[in-house]
Amino acid sequence: MQFWRPGEEFRPDREEILAAGIQKPLLSDHQRVRVLYALEQGKNVIIQGDPGTQTSKVIASHLVAAGWSLDGRCVAVALPRQVAVISSVVHVAEDNSLDESHLGGDHVGFVLESSVKRSSTTKLVYFTNRSLLQTLLKEPLLGSVSVVIVDQFHERSIGADLLLALLKKVQRVRTDLCIIVITAEFTDRICSYLGKARTTQMFIAQRGFPVSIFYTKRPVEDYLQTAMKVIQDAFLQWIRAGQPDSTGVLMFVQGTEEAELFCSTINEWSKTNSEVLRSNGPKESDGSFRKKNGSAQQVLAVSLYSGLDVGQQLSVLSNAVNENCLKVVVSTNIAETTVTVPGISTVIDCGLERVEMFDPRMKTSFISTVQISATSARRRAARAGINQHGSCFRLYTHGHFKSAMAESRPPAVLRCELTEMVLILKAIGVVDVTSFDFLERPDGGLVIDALERLFFLGAISGTGSLTTETGVRICLSSANPRIGKCILVGESYGIGRVMAAVAALLEVRQVLFNTGRSSRSSRALFSVAEGDIITMLNVWRRYVNSSFSDSWCADHGINPAVMQKVRRSFARIVRTNLRLQSKDERFAAARKAIGLSLVECVCRSITAGYFENAAMVEPDGSYLVALPGRRVKIHRQSVLYKRMPKWVTYMDLSQSSTTCEMKDVTVIQPQWLTEYARHLFETVTEKFQS
Fold first, then answer.
1. CATH number of the domain that 150 lies in?
2. Please, which pLDDT band fits residue 213 given cuts at 50, 70 and 90?
3. Which end of the chain is more exposed for a tag (fewer CB within 10 A), N or C?
């Protein structure tokens, strides 16, 4: 595959961008004083800074030094993902010569959904957007916080938009609360939203190096195959250059499956072919291949995506790769803004990403593969120039970049399901959600859909207010509202902890089984006719009975890192829902007395939360979703694939240009639909059964 730079025949023109430098943001004394002065005047601050520059860490340290964390109040930093929080806390601790035992002490701490290390005297506290929203539910005026830094706002997640809206609302009562927004995309809209009279805007220039951009001459059919050729060339250049430690490759792929697949492909190629390529590199005087520190060089590929365990993500970011290896990091868009991978000089950009969408007609969320925006393409390229001059190979044409890519991606409030967001607004007493003051007004249809769903789940009343039992419990469960409903119904059957395990398994959203023939055999061993959820529960129960053994996972072709993550999620969910144990003991006997099996109760509980996704099989083997009336199929990775039970419900859809497939499928009975959602299914099931 030949790459082209616009402006030259067969040779690309040199399009250079200034990449972000992570050594230190150029926060001059003047800028530092300007930030502190603005806050002293009671103003908010909007800072345009490139992703990965640790701007929030530098500003937070200045705020702590200037006394903004005195009198029992702290400086709060909100980030979109857990790995960004942990990475920032580790950096702050290292900068202040603190070990892990000091986290949560006087200097720095964090609040995550799964764990908290914070005391009443902690000066600097890192949150995820979600955990700070949960804190707002318990502490509506954030009385323990003096300044909130909302970092990486350019991602425009639902959590970020909702957090900024609620902070603005808090400011009406707490005029002493200051907000700092750090974004890579500077817009006047944020300034107007917070109030121009009360907002100071700043641009922080960054150190960086030029990055040369290369495009393909023509569209590529298989971007993984093209990327493989680029990596092979990069490996050869690395060998000829004397194996510099600062050289690494960052490959952007569309999703986690592609990341794992491509890593396996690269590592297998490295084992079988690197000696052949290395023969073109420098040799010793006796003709043998030159080795560094006595070891042969090779390519080592590692994956990076948000579903990985935080420890695994941090190991990739620590640059802990053998110096005799050319490091290739295969990442989803998490490496675009959330985290910075050190030692990268070459970026390969596939031009695609997977984003969550919501189909109001299907009344369900799905993951769709879409092309990235032009802004995302620039951010990805910038990752090659953090430490040195770099190169970015875009696996699409220059014409595609100029004419087919949108400048930016629509914010999540315009394309994602808003049920959880609306539930939080109801919990804090917002009466009219449709007129709530957002930076970007959410799609009206999505808001109405969310209100209807919450009403059908029993979380809000007919007047739109939060219901005392169901609504409050679902809100405080820190789970997806549908899953929260499943847990509540499970409690009534005495299986609350079992449904907490289901919630944990679904929350991780990763494949439990490894790839390979032996793993397929193990999968068949656990598979049951009731569907994917019961199959996953079988794995979980055996894992618990093994005392959470990694060796048991290895023997059965199961990913131990995924199971460890499920275990932590389960512990958090149980800790959040303290009544699970006592209710299980009280209601289990009643369940057995009326002859309900545990498996049936699990399937019933799932139906109570996911009744909208019920579907009935058609003669051709497809399924017709009852409410919207759309045809779907069972995903080929489901244990129910080709079994064709009469009625099912699903958790997620996987949508492509030609098919729409159900994932995490459970067998149900149609009479359960009228039992848990009679207002919707009283006539529907009659129509389908007639």
1. 3.40.50.300
2. very high
3. C
470 neighbors 458 (Cβ within 8 angstroms): yes
Q: State the burial class of residue 274 (Cβ atoms within 10 Å of its Cβ: 0-12, 13-18, 19+).
A: buried
Other Cβ atoms less than 10 A from the Cβ of 389: the count is 14
3 state SS of 610: coil
DSSP 422: H
Residues 564 and 567: their CA atoms lie apart, in Å, by 5
**Quick one: 404 and 459 in the same domain?**
no
Would the pLDDT of 584 be above 70?
no
Examine the domain organization and report whether 394 and 464 are in the same domain. no
* Strand ranges, E, within 80-177: 108-111, 116-117, 124-128, 145-150
Place of tokens 């050594």: 23
Q: Strand pairing partners for 386?
A: none
Amino acid at 108: V
Please say which residue of 136, 168, 203 terminates a domain: 203
Residue type, 539: V
Counting Cα atoms < 13 Å in the Cβ hemisphere of 193 gives: 21
Q: Is residue 49 part of a domain?
A: yes
Same domain (yes/no): 342, 429: no
- Tokens describing residue 202: 């700043």
397 and 442 both lie in a single domain:
no
What's the rounded mean pLDDT across residues 232-256? 80
Q: What pLDDT, on the 0 to 100 scale, is given for residue 11?
A: 38
Length of the chain in terms of residues written: 690
Residue type, 6: P
40-54, 255-269, 622-636: least confident range: 40-54
Nearest to 31 by CA among 206, 209, 152, 190: 206
CA 370 to chain centre: 16
Question: Does the CA dihedral 189-193-197-198 come out positive or negative?
Answer: negative
CB-side neighbour CA atoms (13 Å) of 211: 29
Q: Is residue 589 part of a domain?
A: no
Residue 353 parent element (H or E): strand 352-359
Would you state the pLDDT for residue 248? 86
- Decide if 456 is inside a domain: yes
Instruction: Render pLDDT for 425-478 as a digit per residue (tens, 0 to 9).
Output: 999 889 999 899 999 999 888 999 999 999 999 999 989 999 988 898 888 776
Per-residue pLDDT tens digits for 347-364:
999 999 998 888 877 777
Residues 406 and 446 in one domain: no
69, 75 contact by CB (below 8 A): yes
Residues 195 and 221 in one domain: no
**Can you tell me whether residue 8 is helix, strand or coil?**
coil
In 3D space, the residue among 648, 674, 672 whose CA is nearest the CA of residue 661 turns out to be 648
319 pLDDT tier (thresholds 50, 70, 90):
low
Question: Is there a contact between 481 and 420 (Cβ–Cβ < 8 Å)?
Answer: yes
User: What is the distance between the alpha carbons of residues 89 and 126, in angstroms, rounded to a whole number?
Assistant: 7
Asked if pLDDT for residue 540 goes beyond 60, the answer is yes
Torsional sign, CA 611, 613, 617, 618: positive
Examine residue 143 and state whether it is found in any structural domain, yes or no.
Answer: yes
CA dist 665 and 62 (Å) reads 51
**β-strands 325-331, 352-359 pairing:** unpaired
The contacts of residue 395 (CB under 8 Å, 6+ apart) are 216, 220, 223, 226, 227, 348, 349, 350, 351
Domain stop point among 476, 495, 511: 476
E-assigned strand segments in 402-481: none
